[in-house]
Each structure stands twice: as structure tokens, then as C-alpha cells.
Amino acid sequence: MMIVKKPNVLLSTMLIMFLIMAFVSGCTYSGKSHEIITALTDEELSYFNGDKFFNGEYMNIRNQFLSSTYERPEEIDMFQLFYCGSGIEEISTEEERAAVVAYNNWDMEPDCVCTKISRSNMESVLGKYMGLTLADTDEIGLENFTYLEEYDAYYYYHGDTNYRMEIIFSGGEREGDIIRLFYDDVFFVDGKKILTLQEKDGSYLFVSNVYCEKPIEDDNKADVGLDQRSDGSIFSLAIPGTGTLSLNAYPVDFPFGLDLTEKSRKSFRAESFGNVTVVESDNLQVTYLNPDEGVHTVITIRTVKEGCSLAGVTIGDTEETLLEHWTGKPLKKMDSISYDDEVWFGKCDFAYAYTPEEGTKSVVFLIKDGLVSGIEIINGLDGAMY
């Protein structure tokens, strides 16, 4: 009897082992790769740092895939990707612009350029560089554009840009058909990132663009440094008991969803940038543009409010504390500040400013009697202020 059953037991055991192997094989297929990871050669890295894929003449739409972070292609911010267009020249007609104005119930056309992105060109870019259709994406940020069905196109008026002219990767690695490129985002100045590409048909698809993990080496060190800050940007002011205010676009008017008290407001129209609003709060001033209905773009934040901080530096800190915290980024010491700044802040002994190379945004720390007496975050738009 036992001799008769042994083949059946063996067969059952082999069948179970086969099913287990098939299950594991299936997980391996859809999960992590077992390819060997190798560093990119100098020639390969030079290709990505050159003008053949990134960089080159304006505008290279591939550069724009670094304008937002995303863990999956579907999560890319469409507003940031197509902020300056699709890379394919499109000119809006007078009739189209009039239709945009009418759709938004504006009194007049904004005094800045109208960017047009036809749906077909949007689909072309997404298909070529992500293997997606517009419907495949999460459509993040798409609501910031004005869509006109009769023209099957998206429109946005703006006078600034999010386009980075030069991309430089410090290193990279290959794992099968996957390429990972490492870079310090000196354009947004918000830390180190990893761009992941997938090689396909002689070109590359964009897979993800995420922040690097930055473990704190010293457990006793409270300050995590400029490249390890939790707010993601040095152009952000932490207001105690309120939240964080940044040089960003907000979908609502002041106080932008924060617990801030409006003391006064004045508005005027700038020739190049349209409607400008200046709001005074408690020891805080915010200047922002309103180029489009529902878009409020903060361009200047000034404060002398106690407890406010930026990148670990707080109003009332000593000059020595400022210099100790501000590591890895060059500060420029200045004997004077702009007239507008002096009118609001009053006299100071001197100031320190940081402006990323080729950037238009600056952070300014005012020093009086050896202490940080004020902080300013400003976007010069046409050019850096400091």
C-alpha cells in the first residue's frame, strides 16, 4: 500500500513546489528587478548633462519633467509640466483670447502672455515621454488652466517662468533598462533628488522624480541643515501657531487658508505683471500677483514677527547662529538693502542674502545689534533683487 502511494505523494509535492515557484516568479516579474546596478560611465553621464536630451535651446520640454516631484508617471503635475507650453509652438488667436476672458468673466485681458497648449500636443508629449494618454494621468494641476472645448486647448496667462535652462546631474546608475540620475535642485533650491528614466526604443521614458532620503547622521543635532529641512523649500517662512507661507501660487486669496489677520490692503496694476496686491498683517507683509481668477502668486514676504523662521533661522537669533545654520549655501553680506525694503524694515546694520545661481528668488536676513531683526523672501521675476 505504501509503495503504491509514494508516487502520488511525490507528485503532489512537486505540484506544490511548482505552484510556489510560479507565484514567486510572478511577484518577481511585476516587482523588483534583479539586474546588477552599475554606475554610469563618464560618457553616459555626459550625454544627460549635454544638449542632446536635456538642456539645449529653449524650450526643451524634457527639462520640464523635473518641474515637479512624482513617484509614478500618472502623478506628474500637469500645470508645472506645461506651464511654458508643450515645446511645440502654438499661437493663440484674438478670438481664442477673447473666449478665455469671457469664460473667466474678466473685465479685461491680462497684461501678460497667453500660453496655449492644445490637447493634441499635450497627448503627444505624454505619449512620447511617459507612454500615457491624458486620461491615464491623475490630471494633477490641470484645473489651473482654462480649457476651451471649442478649440480643444488649454490656456494660461503669466509673465514668469518655471523653465530651467540648465540641468546638471552629479552622478547616475543603471539597473537593466532603468537609469537613475542624481542632482541637487539648484533651480527650486529644495534639496537633492533622483530622476528615474526607462530606456525604450532608443529613447527614454520618465518614470519618477523624487527627493533623496536624507538620514540625520548626528542624533543629538537638532538642526537638520538646509538639505534636510522638512518644508521642502528655503523660500518658505514658518509662522508660529499658523503654518508655512511660501513663494507659491495659492488657489485662495489672503490669508491663503492660514490663521493670519489682515490689517490693510492696497492693489495696483504693474505694467509687466498685471494686478499686484500688498497686504499688511501682524508684523508681516505679503505681496502677490493675481494674474488669473483663483491664482494668487506670492512674490514677496517680509517679516519682523517674533518666532518666524526660515531654514532653521529665527527672528531674534544671533548673527553667529545664522552663519552656523546656513551651511553649504553662500551668503552675501551687504551694507545696505533696497529702498523699498528699508522703508518697511527700517534701518539695519547690514544684511545677508542668498540667491541661487541663475535664480530670481532670494532670501534676506537683516542684522541689527548682532541679532536677526528681519527676514525677507523675494522673487525678482525679471531678475534677482540680491
Can you walk through the features of this model?
The chain has 386 residues and is of the alpha+beta class. It folds into two domains: 39-211, no CATH class; 226-379, no CATH class. The chain contains seven helices and 21 strands. The strands form five sheets. Strands 11, 12, 13, 14, 15, 18, 19, 20 and 21 form a nine-stranded antiparallel sheet that branches. The protein has a five-stranded antiparallel sheet with strand order 1-5-6-7-8. Strand 6 and strand 7 form a beta hairpin. The longest helix has 29 residues, at 2-30. The radius of gyration is 26 Å and the shape is globular. The chain starts with a helix and ends in a 7-residue tail after the last strand.
How much of the polypeptide forms β-strand, as a percent range?
A: 25-35%
* Beginning-to-end CA distance, first to last residue: 93 Å
Count of beta strands = 21
Please identify the oligomeric state: single chain
Low-confidence parts, pLDDT < 50 over ≥5 residues? Answer: 1-32, 214-232
Largest sheet: 9 strands, antiparallel
Question: What topology does this entry show?
Answer:
Elements: H1 2-30, E1 37-39, H2 42-49, H3 78-81, H4 94-103, E2 113-118, H5 119-130, E3 146-148, E4 153-158, E5 171-175, E6 178-184, E7 192-200, E8 203-211, E9 236-239, E10 243-246, E11 249-250, E12 264-270, E13 274-281, E14 284-292, E15 295-303, E16 309-310, E17 313-314, H6 319-325, E18 332-334, H7 339-345, E19 350-354, E20 361-368, E21 371-379
Antiparallel strand pairs: 1-5, 2-4, 3-4, 5-6, 6-7, 7-8, 9-10, 11-15, 12-13, 13-14, 14-15, 15-21, 16-17, 18-19, 19-20, 20-21
